[in-house]
Design brief:
In the C-terminal section; belongs to the purine/pyrimidine phosphoribosyltransferase family. By secondary structure, the chain is α+β, with helices and mostly antiparallel strands. It has 16 helices and 21 strands. The radius of gyration is 23 Å and the shape is globular. The structure holds 1-O-pyrophosphono-5-O-phosphono-alpha-D-ribofuranose, glutamine and magnesium ion.
Protein backbone atom coordinates (compact mmCIF):
# COMPACT_ATOMS: atom_id res chain seq x y z
CA UNK A 1 0.00 0.00 0.00
CA UNK A 2 1.42 3.30 -0.86
CA UNK A 3 0.68 6.57 0.86
CA UNK A 4 0.00 9.63 -1.27
CA UNK A 5 -0.44 13.31 -0.52
CA UNK A 6 -0.90 16.53 -2.47
CA UNK A 7 -1.22 20.12 -1.30
CA UNK A 8 -1.99 23.58 -2.64
CA UNK A 9 -1.08 26.47 -0.40
CA UNK A 10 0.02 30.07 -0.32
CA UNK A 11 3.14 29.28 1.68
CA UNK A 12 6.03 26.80 1.05
CA UNK A 13 4.86 23.17 1.16
CA UNK A 14 8.07 21.10 1.32
CA UNK A 15 8.02 20.59 5.10
CA UNK A 16 4.28 20.03 5.08
CA UNK A 17 4.52 17.23 2.52
CA UNK A 18 7.44 15.70 4.41
CA UNK A 19 5.40 15.72 7.64
CA UNK A 20 2.40 14.17 5.89
CA UNK A 21 4.59 11.44 4.39
CA UNK A 22 5.96 10.64 7.85
CA UNK A 23 2.36 10.20 8.99
CA UNK A 24 1.79 7.81 6.08
CA UNK A 25 5.07 5.93 6.46
CA UNK A 26 3.28 2.75 7.60
CA UNK A 27 1.80 2.52 4.07
CA UNK A 28 5.13 2.23 2.28
CA UNK A 29 8.70 1.82 3.42
CA UNK A 30 10.60 1.08 0.24
CA UNK A 31 10.90 4.48 -1.41
CA UNK A 32 9.75 8.04 -0.96
CA UNK A 33 9.52 11.10 -3.16
CA UNK A 34 8.33 14.71 -3.27
CA UNK A 35 7.73 17.12 -6.12
CA UNK A 36 7.07 20.81 -5.58
CA UNK A 37 6.27 23.44 -8.18
CA UNK A 38 7.09 27.10 -8.53
CA UNK A 39 5.26 28.75 -11.42
CA UNK A 40 5.53 26.02 -14.05
CA UNK A 41 8.83 24.53 -12.90
CA UNK A 42 8.93 21.24 -11.00
CA UNK A 43 11.48 20.27 -8.35
CA UNK A 44 11.81 16.59 -7.53
CA UNK A 45 13.63 14.40 -5.09
CA UNK A 46 12.93 10.68 -4.79
CA UNK A 47 14.96 7.67 -3.71
CA UNK A 48 14.70 4.26 -2.11
CA UNK A 49 14.32 4.20 1.64
CA UNK A 50 12.17 5.61 4.40
CA UNK A 51 11.22 9.29 4.51
CA UNK A 52 13.82 10.21 7.15
CA UNK A 53 16.61 8.64 5.10
CA UNK A 54 15.53 9.92 1.70
CA UNK A 55 15.26 13.62 2.57
CA UNK A 56 18.27 15.41 3.98
CA UNK A 57 18.27 19.15 4.66
CA UNK A 58 19.91 19.88 1.32
CA UNK A 59 17.15 17.95 -0.50
CA UNK A 60 14.47 19.84 1.39
CA UNK A 61 16.02 23.19 0.53
CA UNK A 62 15.88 22.21 -3.13
CA UNK A 63 12.07 21.78 -3.00
CA UNK A 64 10.68 25.34 -3.20
CA UNK A 65 7.13 26.34 -4.06
CA UNK A 66 3.62 26.48 -2.65
CA UNK A 67 2.19 23.46 -4.49
CA UNK A 68 3.37 19.86 -4.39
CA UNK A 69 2.80 16.19 -3.83
CA UNK A 70 4.55 13.16 -2.40
CA UNK A 71 4.45 9.41 -2.04
CA UNK A 72 5.75 6.60 0.15
CA UNK A 73 6.02 3.42 -1.88
CA UNK A 74 5.35 -0.20 -1.15
CA UNK A 75 5.74 -1.80 -4.57
CA UNK A 76 3.00 -4.02 -5.96
CA UNK A 77 4.10 -3.80 -9.57
CA UNK A 78 7.45 -3.32 -11.20
CA UNK A 79 10.67 -3.51 -9.29
CA UNK A 80 11.33 -2.54 -5.69
CA UNK A 81 15.02 -2.17 -6.45
CA UNK A 82 14.67 0.42 -9.15
CA UNK A 83 15.16 4.00 -8.06
CA UNK A 84 13.33 5.18 -11.20
CA UNK A 85 10.19 3.40 -10.06
CA UNK A 86 10.04 5.42 -6.90
CA UNK A 87 7.29 8.00 -7.28
CA UNK A 88 6.33 10.71 -8.34
CA UNK A 89 6.47 10.05 -12.10
CA UNK A 90 6.89 12.88 -14.58
CA UNK A 91 5.94 13.50 -18.23
CA UNK A 92 6.52 16.80 -19.96
CA UNK A 93 3.42 16.89 -22.15
CA UNK A 94 0.76 18.08 -22.07
CA UNK A 95 1.56 21.01 -19.74
CA UNK A 96 3.97 19.03 -17.53
CA UNK A 97 2.47 16.43 -15.23
CA UNK A 98 3.72 14.67 -12.11
CA UNK A 99 1.71 11.87 -10.57
CA UNK A 100 1.56 9.70 -7.46
CA UNK A 101 -0.52 6.54 -7.29
CA UNK A 102 -1.75 4.14 -4.66
CA UNK A 103 -3.17 0.91 -6.01
CA UNK A 104 -2.57 -1.55 -8.77
CA UNK A 105 -3.76 -1.71 -12.37
CA UNK A 106 -4.88 -5.14 -13.53
CA UNK A 107 -4.59 -4.34 -17.25
CA UNK A 108 -1.22 -2.55 -17.16
CA UNK A 109 0.39 -5.23 -19.36
CA UNK A 110 -2.15 -4.68 -22.16
CA UNK A 111 -2.11 -0.89 -21.84
CA UNK A 112 1.66 -0.83 -22.01
CA UNK A 113 1.55 -2.31 -25.53
CA UNK A 114 -1.33 -0.06 -26.57
CA UNK A 115 0.40 3.09 -25.35
CA UNK A 116 3.47 2.34 -27.43
CA UNK A 117 1.85 0.97 -30.56
CA UNK A 118 -1.14 3.30 -30.82
CA UNK A 119 -0.65 6.35 -28.60
CA UNK A 120 3.06 6.71 -29.45
CA UNK A 121 4.08 7.04 -25.84
CA UNK A 122 7.30 5.68 -24.46
CA UNK A 123 7.49 3.97 -21.06
CA UNK A 124 10.80 3.44 -19.39
CA UNK A 125 9.98 1.38 -16.30
CA UNK A 126 7.94 -1.68 -15.30
CA UNK A 127 5.71 0.37 -13.03
CA UNK A 128 1.95 0.38 -13.57
CA UNK A 129 1.89 3.93 -12.22
CA UNK A 130 3.91 5.11 -15.22
CA UNK A 131 1.29 3.45 -17.43
CA UNK A 132 -1.44 5.30 -15.54
CA UNK A 133 0.33 8.65 -15.93
CA UNK A 134 0.72 8.15 -19.67
CA UNK A 135 -2.93 7.20 -20.11
CA UNK A 136 -3.90 10.34 -18.20
CA UNK A 137 -1.49 12.47 -20.27
CA UNK A 138 -2.96 11.07 -23.47
CA UNK A 139 -6.54 11.71 -22.36
CA UNK A 140 -5.67 15.22 -21.21
CA UNK A 141 -4.06 15.93 -24.56
CA UNK A 142 -7.33 14.92 -26.25
CA UNK A 143 -9.60 16.79 -23.84
CA UNK A 144 -7.73 20.10 -23.66
CA UNK A 145 -8.76 22.25 -26.59
CA UNK A 146 -8.28 25.99 -26.22
CA UNK A 147 -6.13 27.40 -23.49
CA UNK A 148 -6.44 27.98 -20.61
CA UNK A 149 -7.25 24.46 -19.47
CA UNK A 150 -10.62 24.31 -17.68
CA UNK A 151 -11.77 22.02 -14.84
CA UNK A 152 -14.38 20.64 -17.24
CA UNK A 153 -11.65 19.49 -19.63
CA UNK A 154 -9.71 17.93 -16.78
CA UNK A 155 -12.82 15.97 -15.74
CA UNK A 156 -13.34 14.84 -19.31
CA UNK A 157 -9.84 13.42 -19.30
CA UNK A 158 -10.54 11.55 -16.05
CA UNK A 159 -13.67 10.06 -17.63
CA UNK A 160 -11.43 8.78 -20.41
CA UNK A 161 -8.97 7.35 -17.89
CA UNK A 162 -11.74 5.49 -16.02
CA UNK A 163 -12.76 3.88 -19.29
CA UNK A 164 -9.29 2.66 -20.16
CA UNK A 165 -7.71 1.54 -16.93
CA UNK A 166 -8.78 -1.32 -14.71
CA UNK A 167 -7.94 -2.17 -11.15
CA UNK A 168 -7.54 0.02 -8.09
CA UNK A 169 -6.23 3.56 -7.98
CA UNK A 170 -6.16 6.63 -5.85
CA UNK A 171 -4.23 9.30 -7.70
CA UNK A 172 -2.89 12.80 -7.16
CA UNK A 173 -1.47 14.65 -10.17
CA UNK A 174 0.03 18.09 -10.46
CA UNK A 175 -0.67 19.94 -13.71
CA UNK A 176 2.02 22.59 -14.19
CA UNK A 177 0.61 26.09 -14.05
CA UNK A 178 -2.96 24.92 -13.33
CA UNK A 179 -3.40 22.98 -10.11
CA UNK A 180 -3.85 19.65 -8.48
CA UNK A 181 -6.02 16.80 -9.74
CA UNK A 182 -7.10 13.95 -7.45
CA UNK A 183 -9.31 10.99 -8.30
CA UNK A 184 -10.32 7.58 -7.06
CA UNK A 185 -11.27 4.38 -8.86
CA UNK A 186 -14.98 3.76 -9.58
CA UNK A 187 -15.18 0.99 -6.94
CA UNK A 188 -13.57 3.10 -4.22
CA UNK A 189 -11.08 0.35 -3.41
CA UNK A 190 -8.19 2.53 -2.32
CA UNK A 191 -8.79 5.38 0.12
CA UNK A 192 -8.48 9.12 -0.55
CA UNK A 193 -9.74 12.11 1.40
CA UNK A 194 -9.18 15.83 1.59
CA UNK A 195 -9.01 18.57 4.16
CA UNK A 196 -8.50 22.26 4.51
CA UNK A 197 -6.68 24.78 6.69
CA UNK A 198 -7.52 28.47 6.75
CA UNK A 199 -4.23 30.29 6.76
CA UNK A 200 -3.99 34.10 7.04
CA UNK A 201 -2.58 33.98 3.49
CA UNK A 202 -5.62 32.05 2.17
CA UNK A 203 -7.01 28.50 2.08
CA UNK A 204 -4.69 25.51 2.03
CA UNK A 205 -6.07 22.25 0.64
CA UNK A 206 -4.54 18.83 1.24
CA UNK A 207 -5.48 15.50 -0.36
CA UNK A 208 -4.19 12.33 1.32
CA UNK A 209 -4.58 8.56 1.58
CA UNK A 210 -5.60 8.68 5.22
CA UNK A 211 -7.26 11.23 7.47
CA UNK A 212 -4.38 10.92 9.96
CA UNK A 213 -2.15 12.82 7.51
CA UNK A 214 -4.64 15.71 7.42
CA UNK A 215 -5.15 15.86 11.16
CA UNK A 216 -1.46 15.57 11.96
CA UNK A 217 -0.61 18.51 9.71
CA UNK A 218 -3.31 20.83 11.04
CA UNK A 219 -6.02 20.34 8.41
CA UNK A 220 -9.72 20.03 9.03
CA UNK A 221 -11.04 16.83 7.46
CA UNK A 222 -13.60 17.83 4.82
CA UNK A 223 -14.63 14.49 3.29
CA UNK A 224 -13.57 11.36 1.47
CA UNK A 225 -13.25 11.59 -2.28
CA UNK A 226 -16.18 9.54 -3.63
CA UNK A 227 -15.49 6.48 -5.80
CA UNK A 228 -15.04 7.59 -9.41
CA UNK A 229 -15.03 11.24 -8.39
CA UNK A 230 -12.34 13.73 -9.40
CA UNK A 231 -11.34 16.90 -7.59
CA UNK A 232 -9.51 19.67 -9.33
CA UNK A 233 -7.99 22.20 -6.95
CA UNK A 234 -6.93 25.36 -8.74
CA UNK A 235 -3.98 27.49 -7.71
CA UNK A 236 -6.27 29.73 -5.61
CA UNK A 237 -7.24 26.73 -3.52
CA UNK A 238 -10.72 26.48 -4.97
CA UNK A 239 -12.00 22.90 -5.10
CA UNK A 240 -13.97 21.80 -8.20
CA UNK A 241 -15.53 18.34 -8.01
CA UNK A 242 -17.28 16.06 -10.46
CA UNK A 243 -18.35 12.44 -10.65
CA UNK A 244 -16.47 10.98 -13.62
CA UNK A 245 -17.46 7.30 -13.52
CA UNK A 246 -20.58 5.84 -15.09
CA UNK A 247 -21.56 3.45 -12.31
CA UNK A 248 -19.60 4.26 -9.17
CA UNK A 249 -20.00 2.11 -6.06
CA UNK A 250 -18.25 2.17 -2.71
CA UNK A 251 -16.34 -1.02 -1.86
CA UNK A 252 -13.29 -0.11 0.22
CA UNK A 253 -10.54 -2.68 0.64
CA UNK A 254 -11.18 -4.61 3.84
CA UNK A 255 -7.45 -5.17 4.34
CA UNK A 256 -7.09 -1.44 5.11
CA UNK A 257 -9.15 -2.09 8.23
CA UNK A 258 -7.49 -5.40 9.04
CA UNK A 259 -3.88 -4.26 8.76
CA UNK A 260 -2.82 -1.47 6.41
CA UNK A 261 -4.24 1.74 7.77
CA UNK A 262 -3.37 3.46 11.00
CA UNK A 263 -5.98 2.80 13.71
CA UNK A 264 -6.54 6.52 14.26
CA UNK A 265 -7.65 7.06 10.65
CA UNK A 266 -11.26 7.26 9.54
CA UNK A 267 -11.71 5.77 6.07
CA UNK A 268 -15.01 6.12 4.24
CA UNK A 269 -16.72 7.01 7.47
CA UNK A 270 -15.34 3.98 9.34
CA UNK A 271 -12.98 4.29 12.28
CA UNK A 272 -10.17 1.81 11.65
CA UNK A 273 -9.76 1.42 15.42
CA UNK A 274 -13.45 0.64 15.94
CA UNK A 275 -13.34 -1.85 13.05
CA UNK A 276 -10.46 -3.65 14.79
CA UNK A 277 -12.28 -3.65 18.13
CA UNK A 278 -15.34 -5.13 16.40
CA UNK A 279 -13.19 -7.81 14.78
CA UNK A 280 -11.86 -8.69 18.26
CA UNK A 281 -15.42 -8.97 19.51
CA UNK A 282 -16.54 -11.35 16.76
CA UNK A 283 -13.31 -13.33 17.00
CA UNK A 284 -14.07 -13.82 20.71
CA UNK A 285 -17.51 -15.19 19.82
CA UNK A 286 -15.91 -17.56 17.38
CA UNK A 287 -13.38 -18.66 19.98
CA UNK A 288 -16.05 -19.29 22.61
CA UNK A 289 -17.89 -21.55 20.17
CA UNK A 290 -14.67 -23.46 19.42
CA UNK A 291 -13.02 -23.96 22.83
CA UNK A 292 -13.77 -23.17 26.48
CA UNK A 293 -12.06 -19.86 27.40
CA UNK A 294 -11.18 -21.48 30.75
CA UNK A 295 -8.37 -23.26 28.91
CA UNK A 296 -6.71 -19.88 28.31
CA UNK A 297 -4.66 -18.16 31.01
CA UNK A 298 -3.66 -15.03 29.15
CA UNK A 299 -4.23 -13.19 25.85
CA UNK A 300 -1.09 -11.81 24.19
CA UNK A 301 -1.16 -9.60 21.08
CA UNK A 302 1.44 -9.82 18.35
CA UNK A 303 2.42 -6.18 18.06
CA UNK A 304 1.56 -3.93 16.47
CA UNK A 305 -1.55 -4.08 14.37
CA UNK A 306 -3.41 -6.74 16.35
CA UNK A 307 -3.56 -4.82 19.62
CA UNK A 308 -7.12 -3.40 19.44
CA UNK A 309 -8.60 -6.77 18.39
CA UNK A 310 -6.65 -8.67 21.05
CA UNK A 311 -7.68 -6.20 23.75
CA UNK A 312 -11.35 -6.50 22.89
CA UNK A 313 -11.18 -10.28 22.63
CA UNK A 314 -9.55 -10.54 26.06
CA UNK A 315 -12.22 -8.37 27.62
CA UNK A 316 -14.99 -10.39 26.01
CA UNK A 317 -13.67 -13.75 27.24
CA UNK A 318 -12.76 -12.31 30.64
CA UNK A 319 -9.05 -13.13 30.54
CA UNK A 320 -6.07 -10.84 31.20
CA UNK A 321 -4.50 -9.01 28.28
CA UNK A 322 -0.71 -8.87 28.64
CA UNK A 323 2.06 -7.52 26.47
CA UNK A 324 4.32 -10.56 26.21
CA UNK A 325 6.27 -9.41 23.17
CA UNK A 326 8.31 -6.25 22.96
CA UNK A 327 8.66 -4.68 19.59
CA UNK A 328 11.84 -3.07 18.37
CA UNK A 329 10.37 0.16 17.07
CA UNK A 330 13.24 0.66 14.64
CA UNK A 331 12.37 -2.39 12.55
CA UNK A 332 9.75 -1.66 9.89
CA UNK A 333 6.58 -3.55 9.13
CA UNK A 334 7.60 -7.03 8.05
CA UNK A 335 4.62 -7.85 5.86
CA UNK A 336 5.35 -5.02 3.48
CA UNK A 337 9.04 -5.84 3.12
CA UNK A 338 9.91 -7.29 -0.24
CA UNK A 339 11.52 -10.73 -0.30
CA UNK A 340 10.67 -13.73 1.85
CA UNK A 341 14.05 -14.21 3.54
CA UNK A 342 14.10 -10.60 4.76
CA UNK A 343 10.62 -10.98 6.19
CA UNK A 344 11.50 -14.18 8.06
CA UNK A 345 14.62 -12.78 9.67
CA UNK A 346 12.89 -9.56 10.60
CA UNK A 347 10.33 -11.26 12.83
CA UNK A 348 12.98 -12.16 15.42
CA UNK A 349 14.75 -8.85 15.09
CA UNK A 350 11.46 -7.12 15.58
CA UNK A 351 9.82 -9.06 18.40
CA UNK A 352 11.23 -10.46 21.62
CA UNK A 353 9.35 -12.52 24.21
CA UNK A 354 9.35 -11.82 27.96
CA UNK A 355 9.38 -15.20 29.73
CA UNK A 356 7.43 -14.08 32.82
CA UNK A 357 4.30 -13.66 30.69
CA UNK A 358 4.66 -17.14 29.20
CA UNK A 359 6.15 -19.48 31.80
CA UNK A 360 3.81 -22.35 32.61
CA UNK A 361 0.80 -20.62 31.02
CA UNK A 362 -1.65 -21.48 28.28
CA UNK A 363 -1.35 -18.45 26.05
CA UNK A 364 -3.64 -17.23 23.30
CA UNK A 365 -1.63 -15.26 20.74
CA UNK A 366 -3.68 -12.89 18.61
CA UNK A 367 -2.63 -11.48 15.28
CA UNK A 368 -4.59 -9.30 12.87
CA UNK A 369 -3.91 -11.64 9.96
CA UNK A 370 -1.84 -14.62 8.89
CA UNK A 371 -0.60 -14.14 5.35
CA UNK A 372 2.53 -16.12 4.55
CA UNK A 373 2.65 -17.57 8.04
CA UNK A 374 6.18 -16.29 8.72
CA UNK A 375 5.19 -14.26 11.76
CA UNK A 376 2.94 -16.83 13.41
CA UNK A 377 5.34 -19.72 12.90
CA UNK A 378 8.26 -17.83 14.49
CA UNK A 379 6.10 -16.39 17.23
CA UNK A 380 4.60 -19.71 18.28
CA UNK A 381 8.10 -21.12 18.57
CA UNK A 382 9.26 -18.08 20.55
CA UNK A 383 6.32 -18.48 22.93
CA UNK A 384 7.32 -22.10 23.54
CA UNK A 385 10.98 -21.15 24.05
CA UNK A 386 9.76 -18.58 26.59
CA UNK A 387 8.14 -21.40 28.60
CA UNK A 388 4.49 -21.42 27.50
CA UNK A 389 2.63 -24.64 28.33
CA UNK A 390 0.17 -24.50 25.46
CA UNK A 391 0.18 -22.01 22.60
CA UNK A 392 -3.09 -21.15 20.87
CA UNK A 393 -3.22 -18.81 17.94
CA UNK A 394 -6.13 -16.63 16.76
CA UNK A 395 -6.37 -14.44 13.67
CA UNK A 396 -8.71 -11.44 13.59
CA UNK A 397 -8.97 -11.89 9.82
CA UNK A 398 -10.12 -15.01 7.96
CA UNK A 399 -7.61 -17.22 6.09
CA UNK A 400 -5.95 -15.36 3.21
CA UNK A 401 -6.57 -17.84 0.41
CA UNK A 402 -6.55 -15.85 -2.83
CA UNK A 403 -4.05 -13.53 -4.49
CA UNK A 404 -4.60 -9.80 -4.26
CA UNK A 405 -4.45 -7.83 -7.49
CA UNK A 406 -5.57 -4.47 -6.09
CA UNK A 407 -2.43 -3.24 -4.44
CA UNK A 408 -1.61 -5.51 -1.53
CA UNK A 409 1.56 -7.39 -2.18
CA UNK A 410 0.29 -10.95 -2.23
CA UNK A 411 -0.10 -11.62 -5.93
CA UNK A 412 0.77 -15.32 -5.96
CA UNK A 413 -1.31 -18.13 -4.50
CA UNK A 414 1.66 -20.28 -3.68
CA UNK A 415 3.07 -17.81 -1.14
CA UNK A 416 -0.15 -17.80 0.93
CA UNK A 417 -0.07 -20.24 3.80
CA UNK A 418 -3.85 -20.75 3.66
CA UNK A 419 -4.00 -21.42 -0.07
CA UNK A 420 -4.94 -25.04 -0.65
CA UNK A 421 -4.42 -25.91 3.04
CA UNK A 422 -7.02 -26.85 5.62
CA UNK A 423 -7.06 -25.02 8.96
CA UNK A 424 -5.62 -28.18 10.52
CA UNK A 425 -2.72 -28.16 8.05
CA UNK A 426 -2.03 -24.50 8.76
CA UNK A 427 -2.13 -25.16 12.49
CA UNK A 428 0.41 -27.87 12.01
CA UNK A 429 2.62 -25.64 9.85
CA UNK A 430 2.74 -22.85 12.43
CA UNK A 431 3.10 -25.38 15.26
CA UNK A 432 0.22 -24.11 17.43
CA UNK A 433 -1.91 -26.28 19.74
CA UNK A 434 -5.07 -24.70 18.33
CA UNK A 435 -5.79 -22.20 15.60
CA UNK A 436 -8.90 -20.04 15.44
CA UNK A 437 -9.76 -17.86 12.46
CA UNK A 438 -12.37 -15.16 12.06
CA UNK A 439 -14.94 -16.09 9.45
CA UNK A 440 -15.49 -14.02 6.31
CA UNK A 441 -19.09 -12.99 7.00
CA UNK A 442 -18.23 -11.96 10.58
CA UNK A 443 -15.31 -9.83 9.39
CA UNK A 444 -17.45 -8.11 6.77
CA UNK A 445 -20.14 -7.42 9.36
CA UNK A 446 -17.63 -6.16 11.93
CA UNK A 447 -16.33 -3.57 9.44
CA UNK A 448 -19.32 -2.99 7.17
CA UNK A 449 -21.81 -2.36 9.98
CA UNK A 450 -19.89 0.83 10.78
CA UNK A 451 -21.10 2.47 7.57
CA UNK A 452 -24.41 1.38 6.15
CA UNK A 453 -23.74 3.51 3.05
CA UNK A 454 -21.19 1.04 1.70
CA UNK A 455 -22.07 -1.04 -1.34
CA UNK A 456 -19.73 -3.76 -0.17
CA UNK A 457 -16.18 -4.47 0.87
CA UNK A 458 -13.37 -5.51 -1.46
CA UNK A 459 -12.34 -8.75 0.25
CA UNK A 460 -11.00 -10.82 -2.66
CA UNK A 461 -8.02 -12.22 -0.77
CA UNK A 462 -10.48 -13.79 1.67
CA UNK A 463 -13.44 -14.74 -0.51
CA UNK A 464 -12.02 -14.93 -4.05
CA UNK A 465 -14.56 -12.42 -5.36
CA UNK A 466 -12.87 -9.70 -7.44
CA UNK A 467 -15.07 -6.63 -7.24
CA UNK A 468 -14.10 -5.09 -10.59
CA UNK A 469 -15.32 -8.32 -12.20
CA UNK A 470 -12.98 -7.98 -15.14
CA UNK A 471 -9.74 -9.64 -14.05
CA UNK A 472 -8.95 -12.22 -16.72
CA UNK A 473 -6.79 -15.30 -16.36
CA UNK A 474 -4.24 -13.46 -18.49
CA UNK A 475 -4.25 -10.49 -16.07
CA UNK A 476 -3.68 -12.79 -13.08
CA UNK A 477 -0.87 -14.51 -14.92
CA UNK A 478 0.78 -11.24 -15.97
CA UNK A 479 0.67 -9.83 -12.43
CA UNK A 480 1.87 -13.10 -10.93
CA UNK A 481 4.74 -13.57 -13.38
CA UNK A 482 5.93 -10.03 -13.00
CA UNK A 483 5.92 -10.18 -9.22
CA UNK A 484 7.48 -13.64 -9.08
CA UNK A 485 10.44 -12.66 -11.22
CA UNK A 486 10.68 -9.45 -9.25
CA UNK A 487 10.70 -11.44 -6.00
CA UNK A 488 13.71 -13.34 -7.24
CA UNK A 489 15.45 -10.12 -8.20
CA UNK A 490 14.67 -8.70 -4.79
CA UNK A 491 16.14 -11.71 -3.04
CA UNK A 492 19.32 -11.47 -5.07
CA UNK A 493 19.35 -7.69 -4.64
CA UNK A 494 19.19 -8.12 -0.88
CA UNK A 495 21.97 -10.67 -1.02
CA UNK A 496 24.06 -8.27 -3.06
CA UNK A 497 23.46 -5.50 -0.56
CA UNK A 498 24.26 -7.80 2.37
CA UNK A 499 27.48 -8.91 0.69
CA UNK A 500 28.40 -5.33 -0.05
CA UNK A 501 27.90 -4.19 3.52
CA UNK A 502 29.81 -7.23 4.81
CA UNK A 503 32.61 -6.21 2.46
CA UNK A 504 32.43 -2.59 3.66
CA UNK A 505 32.69 -3.60 7.32
O1 LIG B 1 1.83 -14.16 7.94
P1 LIG B 1 2.84 -13.13 7.62
O2 LIG B 1 3.23 -13.17 6.18
O3 LIG B 1 4.01 -13.16 8.53
O4 LIG B 1 2.16 -11.69 7.72
C1 LIG B 1 1.29 -11.31 8.74
C2 LIG B 1 1.96 -10.40 9.73
O5 LIG B 1 2.49 -9.23 9.08
C3 LIG B 1 1.92 -8.07 9.64
O6 LIG B 1 2.75 -7.51 10.64
P2 LIG B 1 3.88 -6.41 10.37
O7 LIG B 1 5.12 -6.80 11.06
O8 LIG B 1 3.98 -6.14 8.92
O9 LIG B 1 3.32 -5.04 10.94
P3 LIG B 1 2.69 -4.60 12.34
O10 LIG B 1 3.84 -4.25 13.26
O11 LIG B 1 1.87 -3.41 12.01
O12 LIG B 1 1.85 -5.68 12.90
C4 LIG B 1 0.62 -8.53 10.25
O13 LIG B 1 0.24 -7.69 11.32
C5 LIG B 1 0.98 -9.92 10.75
O14 LIG B 1 1.61 -9.83 12.02
N1 LIG C 1 1.19 -0.10 -3.10
C1 LIG C 1 0.94 0.72 -4.07
O1 LIG C 1 -0.02 1.45 -4.05
C2 LIG C 1 1.89 0.62 -5.24
C3 LIG C 1 1.67 1.56 -6.38
C4 LIG C 1 2.27 1.00 -7.67
N2 LIG C 1 1.50 -0.13 -8.13
C5 LIG C 1 3.73 0.60 -7.45
O2 LIG C 1 4.05 -0.54 -7.41
O3 LIG C 1 4.57 1.44 -7.30
MG1 LIG D 1 1.88 -7.77 12.72
Amino acid sequence: MCGIVGVISKTPVNQLIYDALLLLQHRGQDAAGIVTAMDTKFFMHKARGMVRDVFRTRNMRALPGTVGLGQVRYPTAGNAYSEEEAQPFYVNAPFGLVLVHNGNLTNAHALRKELFAIDRRHLNTESDSEVLLNVLAHELELAARDLPLTPEEVFKAVRGVHKRIKGSYAVVCLIAGYGLLAFRDPYGIRPLCYGQADLPEGPEVMVASESVALEGTGHRFVRDVAPGEALFIDLDGQVHAQQCAERPSLNPCVFEFVYLARPDSIIDGISVYQARLNMGETLAQRLISTMPPSEIDVVIPIPESSRPSAMQLAQKIGKPYREGFVKNRYVGRTFIMPGQSVRRKSVRQKLNAMPQEFKGRNVLLVDDSIVRGNTSREIVQMAREAGARRVYMASAAPPVRYPNVYGIDMPTKSELIAHGRSIEEIREFIGADALIYQDVAAMKKAVGSLNTGLDGLEASCFDGHYITGDVSAEDFAAIETQRTSQGEEEESGRTRLALQSAGDA
